[in-house]
Amino acid sequence: MPPTPPAHDDVVHSESFLRSLMRRQLGLSIACAATFLVALIGLPLLNYFAPALMATRVAGFTLSWLILGVLFFPFVWIISYAFIKRSIALEEDEVAQAEQARRGKERADP
Amino acid sequence: MKTALFSSAAMPLAALERVDPWILAFSLVTVAVTIWMGFRSAKTSKTASDFFVAGRSVSVGWNASAISGEYLSAASFMGVAGMVMSSGYDALWYPVCYACGYLFLLLFIAGPLRRFGAYTIPDFAEGRFDSPLFRKIAVCFVLFIGFFYTMPQMKGAGVTLSYIFPGMPYWVGVVVVGAVITFNVSLGGMKGITLVQAFQYWIKMFAISVPVFVLMSVVGFYNGHIGANKAPGETAAPVTTLADNTVRKPLVEKAPKDEVWVAPFGPLTTKAVNAAAAALPVEQRAAYLAEHQKPYSLLYTYSLIIALVCGTAGLPHILVRFYTNPDGVAAKRTTMWVMILIGVFYVFPPVFGAIGRNLMPELYSGVGAKGTDKVVLELPTLLTGNAGVLGSILSGITCAGAFAAFMSTFSGLLVSMTGALAHDVYGRMLRPKSSPQERLAAFKIAAVIIGGVAIGLGCFVEPLEINFMVGQAFAIAAASYFPLLFMSVWWRGMTMKGAAIGMLTGGLCALGAAALTNLGTLALDKGPMGKVFAGFAPLNAFWAEHPLLRILCEQPAIWTVPLAIGLMIVVSKATAAQVPADIRMKMLVLHAPEKLGLKQEYIQEHQAGAGH
Fold it and tell me: What residues contact residue A14 under an 8 Å CB cut-off, 6+ apart?
């Protein structure tokens, strides 16, 4: 016999907890994605509107080649590092909140 | 050893005499070690769960290497270099987006999907919408994307073998490599074992980086080889001497000019407009090009970016690997290490392309297996002149890397496609009551069928570029699985009907567009394939009149991805009553940290519900 499912009236199962959970995580993801997209959308636009600038030579490379062929990779590593740090902190905070709410409820219940 | 230009079915003995022993030895050792490792691991881990448990017992470093090893296919190893050589700057978007697509996966999909505990996309489709029917629809796309992904692997095999054995026809290489891997998979070896895939990554990394550094130290560095190309607006190239005793060879007639090669909006993205201009009277051409060339080229670039970035987040055989992580923190660290490992790798192939352009321009005149796709394999032989046997050894190393690339990806794809056919189509749809022995037999038969189809398709694609074909697989994934995953994870109003209609329409449109493009390109081929596909020649005449349609067909992601997402929203709103009843619990499982233990709770409730 499976254990009885726990009651669904605690904080973790509440609508507001799910909403804040999704909003905070999506907010972080969108902020990181936006940083990435600015570069991803911006580079073709720069190539389009400022071709002379992007053809400037930097140690033999054209500026555009240097950015796309070499510098883009470390740029993305930095975004992903920042995302991982923030999102692990976010998860720990959520767990702490939920634990605190559970303890508060237990104290109030009996 | 210079590859002679006789492509007809030559006498095998004459071909063997011109085989370089070093290249042959390195290739054989790679094949033998891969097969041996596969069988050894297969003996110790027999079931699917062994595979996942093995994943859980290894460290972040091994896991990241394994994911990277499975990801880097013949397209990354050979195709990117070939395409940079043939098309220049625009081709750089491929390696950049192959690597950076992982960021979208990390930001929006990897975490929630792993928490949900679904091991494959069909599993997720069924669990998220409680619909076995949707599972069947999702399975079809494993096969669609898989076949588009296997074709370039097969071309990689054909090119590599006809390089090692000069004079051997392209199709012989496809058949031999395809048959060996299919045989191996159907016997149960090489089942995507973590250790083998991780080992393959390091072979590929070694095989691409060491020859690059040795080559650059002799024939001049990356920046010098880019600098030898005159950019638009310059009167002369800034670099004239590449290295001691190394001067640039004159370009052949077929090679793109310096200005279009080194600058954005070059031959790759302007092909359709150029073809349209060529169909016009001479006096109208310049005005037509001035008006249309750059805007259409920008559109092509954006569509390509969407396909590659969204497609990476929807590749079935990659997502599976994310569940080999023990927990959320390890999964996120693994993803970051994957991005670093593949990012470092992707800096190297364009170097081969740039050096190849300056020092091996004769490849531009080659077609099919003799064209730029083999630059990675052949470029190290440049050293044979002044460094003796070193050139052969390095060429042997890059051949070994190519074998590692198409063997690991093809066997991984074959396992996942065979699993879909044997487990989902046979085991669940055709014969739900079949015995385990029958299912094992079905797995072997399915492996042979899929391997056979992949070999057959592979024989036809010699005129197509390896990297371009992989891009098409990404475009199909971007229009089918990516919208499904992204929307189901972040929008609770999704219904099964909305998801299914959006995914099917987007995916099939992308599939149709990709197929049409390939048929048109094959009809242009001057070899035997051109005769087979001659019936599709009118398609090219139509596209010459409508270059915009050609671009939207060649790179469909810019309209198929919004179409799929739009349909999902509209149909889900129309069928809002069918949103799964326990949607809040499902969303909690997707988004709440594992430490809260909601997953176990969810499983218990589902089992309790099933018991009634």
Answer: none
CB atoms within 10 A of CB B275: 17
* Partners of A18 in the β-ladder: none
Query: pLDDT by residue (tens digit) across B209-242?
Result: 999 998 888 888 888 888 888 888 777 777 777 7
Query: Across chain B, what does the average pLDDT equal?
Result: 81
Q: pLDDT by residue (tens digit) across B311-352? A: 988 887 777 666 666 666 777 788 889 999 999 999 999 999
Please give the Cα distance from A95 to B527 (Å, whole number): 64
Shortest alpha-carbon distance between residue B215 and chain A (Å): 18
Number of domains in chain A: 1
On whether the CB atoms of residues B356 and B375 are closer than 8 A, the answer is yes
What range defines the domain where residue A100 resides? 32-108
Phi, psi torsion values for B314, nearest 5 degrees: -130, 20
Q: Does domain B12-604 have CATH number 1.20.1730.10?
A: yes
Three-state SS at B52: helix
Could you tell me if residue B266 is left (phi over 0), alpha (psi between -120 and 50 degrees) or otherwise beta?
beta
Which residues, listed in sequence order, are joined to residue A57 by a DSSP beta bridge?
A62
Tell which residue, B82, B26, B74, B152, has the closest CA to residue B379. Answer: B82
Would you call B344 an interface residue with chain A, using a CB distance cutoff of 8 Å? yes
Q: Answer yes or no: is A16 within a domain.
A: no
Under 8 Å CB-to-CB from B356, ≥6 apart: which residues?
B81, B85, B363, B372, B375, B379
- Nearest Cα of chain A lies from the Cα of B594 at a distance, in angstroms, of 9
Give residue limits of the domains in chain B.
Answer: 12-604
Residue A11 in any domain: the answer is no
Q: Do A68 and B92 touch (CB under 8 A)?
A: yes
Pairwise CA distance, residues B302 & A13, whole Å: 42
Put simply, whether B449 touches A (Cβ < 8 Å) is no
Cα B358 to Cα B5, B214, B361: the distances in Å are 21, 17, 6
The candidate with the shortest Cα–Cα distance to B72, out of B142, B171, B156, B164, is B156
A84 touches chain B (CB under 8 A): yes
Q: How far is CA B299 from the centre of its chain?
A: 22
CB of B196 within 8 A of CB of B37? yes
